[in-house]
Amino acid sequence: MFFYQALVLLNRDIVTTTGMLYPRESETREVRSLDGLWNFVKSDITNPTQGMRDKWYLDDLSRVRKTIPMPVPASYNDITTEHAIRDHVGTVWYDRKFFVPMSWSKNQRVWLRFGSVHYEAFVYVNGEMVVRHEMGHLPFEAEISQYVKYGQENRITVMCDNALIQTTIPQGKITELARDDGVSIVQTYTFDFFNYAGIHRSVHLYTTPSTYIEEIDFTTDLSKNNTVGFVTLAKVKIGGSVDNEAASNDLHIRVQLLNKEGIVVANTTSKSDMTAILEIKNVKPWWPYLMHHEPGYLYEMEIFLIDSNTEELQDVYRCKVGVRTLSWNNSSFMINGKPIYFRGFGRHEDSDIRGKGLDLALMTRDFNLLKWVGANAYRTSHYPYSEESMQFADENGIMIIDECPSVDTENYNQALLEKHKSAMEQLIHRDRNHASVVMWSIANEPRTGQLNAGSYFQYVANYTRQLDNTRPVTAAIAVNSADDKAARYLDIISFNRYNGWYSNPGRLDMITKRIIDEATTWHEKHNKPVIMSEYGADTVEGLHLLPSYVWSEEYQTELFSRHFRAFDILRKKSWFIGEFVWNFADFKTAQSVTRVGGNKKGVFTRSRQPKAVAHLLRKRYFALGREVDECTLIPSDLFTYITDGSSTRSSKHDSTDL
């Protein structure tokens, strides 16, 4: 006889993030970049812990093994011409030298900050471990004041491990497979993008005063028909020498808001509780792109930490603030009281050679293309994007559905739950002050029909609301509504479906009704707003077939058109609130016989050039902008001139017309 016992998941507390303000220079702070060429060594794939056992971090890597130059930030996979580096599984090592000026030794703290290392990082300064971090795509930092040599050369060493297992976020498996001359260690995963690894985002040294502004948490509100704005500083946490309440009573903050012209429009002084409320008359709210003639309006907030006894300035930190409100119910989502219809993309941080490395030129091109095509939103599929891209979204009025790294989640267990909650906590801690972030996505295509999926996502969704109840919670679900156990715990239902591609490929006549029926089923079951978060078809750039045929540009165009018909019917029902194409641009995947150089569902190529469907999508998105948002912006090149529609010739035709 067999007895089956379900695994019980417990909702345990997790360690929360502190600090992590984006490095910015001010009167009291200095910032230095450590980006550039680092030294790089790959561990033996069969002996990934050798570097730890032999303590490679105690000396220059070049004294241990021959090193190669490796750019930071960048994924290491596509930089060289070697299979062994591109497909490496396990640990790699980086190091470089840097100087710390003698002036930094006086009444200051020195910090080392990484924007992202994928997946796990161990960081050493002059042979001493200063920080360990697990979770790619999110920042981490450590104070290194006591580890550096001032006025001298210092060494930083990083061990990076890209291995994914069943308790990492995202999940993967490590297997051994026989090869011609032995055994290979192979990383497998179910998600459909390449597992790029390395130091993906910028590395900074920065200073703060001994007593410093450690965290800032604020919310915004509007009243009187959006003419008066409020910025509420819920928390300004002070770090450093303030170790008790009595000491904190000797400090206060002065806060002011400046408009784009640099004019102070609001200011206040806090008491010792370090909270404040600023009122802005004749406020300029933050609006999404195409909803206002001045989208993405940002104020600058200046926070001055002051010694209450001497009135001496202790620290200064500045950040951008977009003043807006969010609200939602069972049929709509609103910004500043106005209903929103999302039109955008799922995306990837992915490019040739750099992989997932931060590339400011590429990022700028992407935002120009988003605005060119008339999109007002995107989802950070399937992981948090760079802090620089979040700032860009704020400034351009592009709404963000901010997604954590949980993709294809399955085999639910206690360790996975705690790491999933940690991923959400780190994400919200980093992005809570961005006006562009309008929704949290707690997963992409989780296996929500599995045992324990319901309780698992109930815990994750409720924890997300506990951290931030000002934004709705969603997840992109691919399981059908009858089997799904997670959607009931979401605020907004997002679903992925590939009619005409994975389902009934080539059948354009099996798309429109199926979308309408599935979206309606989701709403009727849960009585919540619905978004189609993924649809599309792989398309080879330059492949033209008539009549349309799968993989051709004609087929992608017709498939989109059939989806548009469904969306327009659904929009009339009010509870259908958005359409997201998969994908913005072609991207790299693991090698597969179903992928020719990667996933080709992009509206743009991997080099960011438009396929034929981009022009069709552009016409639709701007048409929706005019219809839904009363947008008056019509690009002059939206329609190509064909004819003025008039003719002085007779409408009768004869052989002379041939």
TrEMBL record:
<feature type="domain" description="Glycoside hydrolase family 2 catalytic">
    <location>
        <begin position="330"/>
        <end position="622"/>
    </location>
</feature>
<dbReference type="GO" id="GO:0004566">
    <property type="term" value="F:beta-glucuronidase activity"/>
</dbReference>
<dbReference type="InterPro" id="IPR013783">
    <property type="entry name" value="Ig-like_fold"/>
</dbReference>
<keyword id="KW-0325">Glycoprotein</keyword>
<comment type="similarity">
    <text>Belongs to the glycosyl hydrolase 2 family.</text>
</comment>
<feature type="domain" description="Glycoside hydrolase family 2 immunoglobulin-like beta-sandwich">
    <location>
        <begin position="211"/>
        <end position="324"/>
    </location>
</feature>
<dbReference type="GO" id="GO:0005615">
    <property type="term" value="C:extracellular space"/>
</dbReference>
<keyword id="KW-0326">Glycosidase</keyword>
<protein>
    <recommendedName>
        <fullName>Beta-glucuronidase</fullName>
        <ecNumber>3.2.1.31</ecNumber>
    </recommendedName>
</protein>
<feature type="domain" description="Glycosyl hydrolases family 2 sugar binding">
    <location>
        <begin position="31"/>
        <end position="209"/>
    </location>
</feature>
<dbReference type="InterPro" id="IPR006102">
    <property type="entry name" value="Ig-like_GH2"/>
</dbReference>
<comment type="subunit">
    <text>Homotetramer.</text>
</comment>
<dbReference type="InterPro" id="IPR023230">
    <property type="entry name" value="Glyco_hydro_2_CS"/>
</dbReference>
<dbReference type="GO" id="GO:0005975">
    <property type="term" value="P:carbohydrate metabolic process"/>
</dbReference>
<dbReference type="InterPro" id="IPR006101">
    <property type="entry name" value="Glyco_hydro_2"/>
</dbReference>
<comment type="function">
    <text>Plays an important role in the degradation of dermatan and keratan sulfates.</text>
</comment>
<dbReference type="InterPro" id="IPR017853">
    <property type="entry name" value="GH"/>
</dbReference>
<keyword id="KW-0732">Signal</keyword>
<dbReference type="InterPro" id="IPR006104">
    <property type="entry name" value="Glyco_hydro_2_N"/>
</dbReference>
<dbReference type="InterPro" id="IPR008979">
    <property type="entry name" value="Galactose-bd-like_sf"/>
</dbReference>
<dbReference type="Pfam" id="PF02836">
    <property type="entry name" value="Glyco_hydro_2_C"/>
</dbReference>
<keyword id="KW-0378">Hydrolase</keyword>
<dbReference type="InterPro" id="IPR023232">
    <property type="entry name" value="Glyco_hydro_2_AS"/>
</dbReference>
<dbReference type="GO" id="GO:0019391">
    <property type="term" value="P:glucuronoside catabolic process"/>
</dbReference>
<dbReference type="Pfam" id="PF00703">
    <property type="entry name" value="Glyco_hydro_2"/>
</dbReference>
<keyword id="KW-0458">Lysosome</keyword>
<dbReference type="GO" id="GO:0005764">
    <property type="term" value="C:lysosome"/>
</dbReference>
<dbReference type="GO" id="GO:0030246">
    <property type="term" value="F:carbohydrate binding"/>
</dbReference>
<dbReference type="InterPro" id="IPR036156">
    <property type="entry name" value="Beta-gal/glucu_dom_sf"/>
</dbReference>
<dbReference type="Pfam" id="PF02837">
    <property type="entry name" value="Glyco_hydro_2_N"/>
</dbReference>
<dbReference type="InterPro" id="IPR006103">
    <property type="entry name" value="Glyco_hydro_2_cat"/>
</dbReference>
